């Protein structure tokens, strides 16, 4: 499975962006997003189950970001609202593994990674 992330860009604080992650084939893997800012470790952002029925978010984005998926289009979305300068990072989508692979940020068991899409939030 190949993952293609898109939708990043430059936005002012308080604005919104919607990231997309298109998979090359139909799958029911858990899928999620990580981000990495310059000089910082990669951190978990959000994960969604294969059916779309379960989600989990990091505390730093809870209430502002929403993850969803359209399995008919093999695509996962990350709607980001009320963006803050500290959300600035390269965002990576991933597929496979368990929920803990994402929430623990261990990425153990995650099988597939997309290339990053840059999100920059200006103050």
* Rg result: 13 Å
Count the beta strands: 11
Query: Judging from the principal axes of the Cα atoms, what is the shape?
Result: globular
- The secondary-structure element order is EEEEEEEEEHEE
Helix share of residues?
under 10%
Main sheet characteristics: 7 strands, mixed
Number of helices: 1
Oligomer category: single chain
Judged by helices, strands and strand pairing, the structural class is mainly beta
Fraction in beta strands: over 45%
What is the overall pLDDT average?
95
Low-pLDDT stretches: none
End-to-end Cα distance: 37 Å
Explained architecture:
Helices cover 4% and strands 49% of the residues. With 123 residues, the chain is mainly beta. The strands form 2 sheets. Strands 2, 4, 5, 6, 9, 10 and 11 form a 7-stranded mixed sheet that branches. The protein has a 4-stranded antiparallel sheet with strand order 1-3-8-7, with no helix packed on it. Strand 5 and strand 6 (55-57) form a beta hairpin. The longest helix has 5 residues, at 99-103. The protein is globular and about 40 Å long. 33% of the residues are buried.
């Amino acid at each position: 499975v190949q993952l293609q992330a898109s939708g990043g860009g430059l936005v002012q604080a308080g604005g919104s962006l919607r990231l997309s992650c298109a998979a090359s084939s139909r799958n029911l893997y858990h899928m999620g997003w990580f981000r990495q800012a310059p000089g910082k470790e990669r951190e978990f952002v959000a994960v969604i189950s294969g059916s779309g029925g379960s989600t989990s978010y990091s505390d730093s984005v809870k209430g502002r970001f929403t993850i969803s998926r359209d399995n008919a289009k093999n695509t996962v979305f990350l709607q980001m609202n009320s963006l803050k300068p500290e959300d600035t990072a390269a965002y990576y989508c991933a597929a496979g593994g368990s929920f803990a692979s994402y929430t623990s940020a261990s990425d153990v068991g995650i099988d597939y990674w997309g290339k990053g899409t840059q999100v920059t939030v200006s103050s």
